[in-house]
Design a protein that fits this description.
Number of strands: 2
Number of helices: 6
Strand order of the largest sheet: 1-2
Structural class: mainly alpha
Order of helices and strands: HEEHHHHH
Radius of gyration: 26 Å
Length: about 160
């Protein structure tokens, strides 16, 4: 495959799988010196750019990761504040329960899932109680932002704080 730098890995795989002109013969692979449609112009520049970015993506992500997480949190707070503002802050305050038992039961109910998930993830990942803030964040994202978006936030946390990443 030397001498044909414009054949990318998908074209190589296609030549190996589809037979001619990359037919297998006694363990040898014969590849045509020029593919039918070599990438030219914009397509070739795009492939070269993606190849360069592929190697630099982890370094770029490490630089962008912190601000991206803060931006996501700011968007969540903004959307929640905007939705509550649409109802009207006066109505929201007037309709809050006055019985303190409500808040005790609410907190116990809201934290029960993260508590049990802490037990499960400690068994899987040996995280201890350090996973609780990530699990609470997961719960908020799943309920207030988009279902299952908290799962991605949790696994991003796990990649940075456990041995799974």
């Amino acid at each position: 495959m030397r001498g044909t730098p414009w054949i990318n890995r998908f074209q190589k795989r296609a030549l190996l799988v589809n037979g001619a002109p990359g037919a297998l013969d006694a363990g040898r692979v014969y590849v045509a010196t020029k593919p039918a449609n070599p990438p030219t112009g914009h397509k070739r520049m795009t492939e070269e750019l993606l190849a360069r970015l592929h190697h630099r993506a982890p370094a770029i992500w490490r630089k962008v990761q912190g601000p991206a997480r803060l931006a996501l949190m700011a968007v969540v707070v903004f959307v929640l504040a905007r939705n509550l503002g649409a109802i009207g802050w006066g109505k929201v305050v007037r309709n809050l329960p006055t019985n303190p038992w409500f808040y005790g039961v609410f907190i116990v109910n809201y934290c029960s899932l993260p508590f049990y998930e802490t037990i499960i993830y400690n068994w899987l990942w040996r995280t201890g109680f350090s996973v609780i803030p990530a699990l609470l964040r997961k719960r908020v994202y799943n309920e207030a932002v988009l279902e299952y978006s908290g799962e991605s936030a949790l696994f991003m946390w796990a990649r940075d704080h456990t041995r799974i990443g």
